[in-house]
Amino acid sequence: MTLNKQQQSTSIKRQATRLGALIRTARKQHSLTQSQLADRIGVTIPTLRRLESGEGSVSLHTFLAGLSLLNIEDDVLHYPIERSSRPVLKIPSNEKQKYASRLQANGINSRDAENAAWILSLSGQQRVQLLKNQEKEQKLCGIALR
Amino acid sequence: MWDRTPIEEAVSLVSDIERHHGRAMLIGGAALFLYGKPMRSLDYDLWVRVANDELVEILMAHGFEIDSNKPGRIIAYFEECKFDFFLFKKATNYDRELVEYDEIEASGRIVELEHGKLLIPSIEDMIKLKKLGDEIRPKDLEDIEYLEGLLKAENNP
Q1: Which of A49, B108, B129, B150 could disulfide-pair with A84, CB 3.0 to 4.6 Å?
Q2: CB half-sphere exposure, A28, CA atoms < 13 A
Q3: Is residue A112 over pLDDT 80?
Q4: Is A77 in CB contact (< 8 Å) with chain B?
């Protein structure tokens, strides 16, 4: 899909505002004032303000220097492409007892081992459903939540 | 009665954070539950990589009450349930191990759900995360013992 000029300009403005907000948040997390960060990047305070507000243009060098100083380059420039696809541990349901014994042999008490073997024999979806049911039950019974 | 229970809210939040191009993983007691240890409280811990302002916006849209908003950490309530959001990128635990979001995410485990998925740290990383903070609570030690037992059982079938 091709954007027309107006759409392109709106999109750039939105992205610039978002990037500026990221820089402002990271600066605050580093407890730096605008003046301190401007000084470290080597720009004036008005330039840094333009960068943080996403208004006007600043040089690519200034932008990258800001990211680098605030240690947020990876977050902004590289969205991780290698995300885990490994599923959570699951044991076959007919091996619950055997697995519980194995847990006990590795130092887990019998009650925890049996609970764990049962929960770990469920699918991820079923575990979350179990958690939901427990939460509903606790709410119904008025059990202290904290 | 809840319209949505805390775990459902957590799943929905993760999905919204990802829609905002952020990243999130479930840590703490709820993640431990997914590794087989029953939860004793309904507190939720989420480690997120999203700008503070954006997270606040998402939480407000979900009807959360923000209790505290400090650099690197937001505490918010969903009804009586406390949600702790950690926004730091990396930290060192008291065993001097580096705990970094990107690495923990890369070796995390996926919990497939009907609509979407949740990411939780691997067992080894759950242990590292349990060692973050200034003090070791008896509950943390107990959880570490459990996770170490689980890890041994995995490594020595």
Answers
A1: B108
A2: 15
A3: yes
A4: no
